[in-house]
Amino acid sequence: MSILINRETRVLVQGITGREGTFHTQQMLAYGTRVVAGVTPGKGGTTTLDVPVFDTVAEAVRQTGANASVIFVPQRFAPDAVLEALDAGLSLCVCITEGIPIQEMIRVVHFVRQSQVGGGGMRLIGPNCPGLISAGECKIGIMPGNIVQRGRVGVVSRSGTLTYEIVDSLSRAGLGETTCIGIGGDPILGSTFADILPLFEADPETEAVVLIGEIGGSDEEAAAEYIPRMTKPVIGFISGRTAPPGKRMGHAGAIVSGGRGTAQAKVEALTNAGVPVADTTSEIPGLVRQALRS
Amino acid sequence: MKIHEYQAKQILARYGVPIPRGEAVTDADAAAEVARQLGSPVVVKAQVPVGGRGKAGGVKLARTPDEARAVAGQILGMSIKGIVVRKVLVEEAAQIAAEYYLGITVDRAARRNVVMVSAAGGMEIEEVAATTPEKIARVWIDPGIGLADFQIRQVCYAAGLEREAVASATRFLRALYDAYVANDAGLAEINPLVLTTSGSLIATDAKIDIDDNALYRHPELAAYKEESEDDPVEAEAHRRGLQFVRLEGDVGIIGNGAGLVMSTLDEVKRAGGAPANFLDIGGGAKADLVANALEVVLSNERVKGVLFNIFGGITRCDEVAKGILEAARRLSIRVPIVVRLTGTNEQEGRALLQGTKLIPAETMEQAAARIVALVRGGAA
User: Fold this and answer.
1) Contact between residue A273 and residue A197 where contact means Cβ atoms under 8 Å apart
2) Which label site among A107, A199, B81, B233 has the fewest CB atoms less than 10 Å from its CB?
3) What's the gap in Å between the CA of B334 and the closest CA on chain A?
4) Record: contact B108-A251, CB cut-off 8 A
5) B362 vs chain A: nearest CA distance in angstroms?
6) Positive or negative CA dihedral for B167, B172, B178, B181?
7) Are B353 and B321 in contact (CB under 8 A)?
């Protein structure tokens, strides 16, 4: 088992004919992902890597039964691409694109979340995220597939490379993962920690969860409110402990402003929720193992 | 992007918010001339995009043109929170009867824009929020509808503004919202909005932060961008398309991925060192990119050593190692460089570094300890 995506997931690539879109489609296919369609307006009727390309998402869904999409289109077209995925009735959309204006995302995320009221609708992962992998089953996005080993730990993170580093160390420690998700580094995200944790809680194969947060916002604090209700252990890590206030540390969302969003506040909230928080990444596999034993 | 007060006021004036008469100048004589033309007492204000200017002595009253020259002379060139003052705004001083706060920003947790109004203006709003939160009235904006007129009335009445001020305040709040949306701001505030002794309202201070991600669709703000770059090293890094933040220490840091670089800074600090910068080179391993990054880091004279922290995912470690080696060959390097490579093809990557001046390290902790020891002059 895994969460959100598995062997059956039928993936559509929005922006498949672009450089990034083509490269990562190839990587996804190599991982075994069922990429059933691509969409690039004006390129309908052609194929890329033997994948049929359509002009619109709606047409691609009708023809191929795609139920998830991944977005590789430039920042100015990405908000529209998410809305097109929503309109076509997909159940999952993963937006890799970085640099989307925050006001656009407030509007788009509003409509995406409205679709979820009463169950169903579309779930958005990202933007500005690496996507997700269900170990050995399906990869959507840009995570390196070779570092993921089938196992029992769920990973959810606001960052990209740091996640790979931690996943790699879990794999090397023989723990392995169920699903690894990068929710993104932007201030406004389609899915937050608090949205993902219940999915891991409900997944029979996931035995522990690693939550990788960073400075900025209060998503970690919101997660800390939910964690005491979980039956599975959560292990935390927060980056940016030494970041100066008022400076944006690479990610649009990684900023301490007006004294809010500090690493200290997040570590404290998680600790109070009973989460062991690692001081350094190398402690994480040990803390996971300890949590699994007790 | 944080723009200056006078620039924020220029924007607000275009939307019909009354601002004091005045001008931004770069020398003391020009300040005296503006004061003479205004023919009234003036306020001389340091133009730096940080809070706490008043406390730092960057805002002063001047009754005469000569006084304006004198205080402008004091303020220009002074350093406020590490930023040198190059411009002062000289404007007519207002006769204050009451001070209000009007602000709009993004509430991340609510995923909405929030409007805030307070009758306790003139103080930092964070301070008001911390000490007397009941003095701030808030209303959240539905993204599907936008800011409705009834919400504006609601929030202004809830804030307890003087009754004669409410009608104008609601008008200025609408203007502030229009400016906020049209300019892709992440924050727009008027603090204080002054109710003058003659009963009119005027914005004597304003702050607007523009969303960097939206600058591509605001070519008209490009001039502000240039002026917002107060650090030459940061400006150069951004010109080269690098994610760079200057810090106070002496250990240069380069890595791929914002989270990984942030963790590297934390690790260096844990090892007793002080990072000189944050630099994320992003994906890819091209020697050009690495050379650019290394050049920018080394242009900071304080840097006594550099730590590369690279995770090879789809980009392989051996490619990254080649990029670093080539970059090091192109530049003349006088400081120790520790390179930590992990992930795909790490063995091959580390093998390439053998026999070179670059010092390989296996873990993030080891790398941090090594570079800190080298920078401190001890044996690693």
Assistant:
1) no
2) B81
3) 27
4) no
5) 12
6) negative
7) yes
A102 contacts B214? CB cut-off 8 A: yes
Q: Are residues A171 and A271 in the same domain?
A: yes
CATH code given to domain B21-93: 3.30.1490.20
Number of A/B CB contacts below 8 angstroms equals: 165
Q: Return the HEC string of A232-280.
A: CCEEEEEECCCCCCCCCCCCCCCCCECCECCHHHHHHHHHHCCCCEECC
A159/A253 same-domain check: yes
Cα–Cα dist A11/B7, whole Å? 47
**Alpha-carbon dihedral sign for residues B236, B242, B245, B248:** negative
ipTM value of the model?
Answer: 0.94
CA distance B359 to B336: 8
Q: How far apart are CA A91 and CA A140, in angstroms?
A: 14
* pLDDT tens-place string over residues A225-234: 999 999 999 9
Listed residue (A55, A19, A27, A23) closest to A37, CA to CA: A55
**Dihedral, CA atoms, A4, A10, A13, A14, nearest 10 degrees?**
-80
**For the segment B53-82, what is each residue's pLDDT rounded down to a tens digit?**
888 999 999 999 999 999 999 999 999 988
Q: How far is B107 from chain A (nearest CA, A)?
A: 9
Give the residue among B246, B244, B262, B276 at the shortest CA–CA distance from B375: B276
User: Cβ–Cβ of B111/A259 closer than 8 Å?
Assistant: no
Task: Nearest chain B residue to A160 by CA: give it.
Answer: B257
Q: What residue type is assigned to position A237 of the chain?
A: F
